[in-house]
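Per reviewer request, we include the raw input and output of the structure prediction for the construct analysed in the revised manuscript.
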Amino acid sequence: MAEKLTIRRYRRTDKESCRRLWRDLTERHREIYSDPTIGGKDPEDHFDKHLRKVGEKNVWVAVLGRKVVGLLGMIIDDQEAEMEPVVVHHSHRGKGVGTALIRTAVKEAEKLGVKYLSVRPVARNAEAIKFFRTKGFENIGRIELLMDFSDKRWKTGIEVHDLPFRY
């Protein structure tokens, strides 16, 4: 019998599982940016800071059987809400976990009466951008432009308003 996927609010007993998911997210960012320093030595500590910022009531977990396999936080600011982060363990991607988490966030945003629900995947994460696009995130509200003083290597190939950008 297949295990059932459940989406529920975060519980304190989920903390270590969520910290591992945060590390998984950081490892993905390190991979796509070829930068092992992203997130620092203990990236899971950033989950603790995030949890204090958004509050336990604004975090949901995806549970398969008894294992936490996904995490979604929501930053709510008046009439806007941002999904941050949306994380699915790499071994469970493509199996409906992210879709179920987003469906929960959409219902919560509608219940709260916010005008906009946003998500901000990193520019190089084409897989995530395509995924969110298929879930209805088809409007661009902001673009963040950076001036880089580091030795980071950027890719080319993105245009906005007929202007070339690196990402």
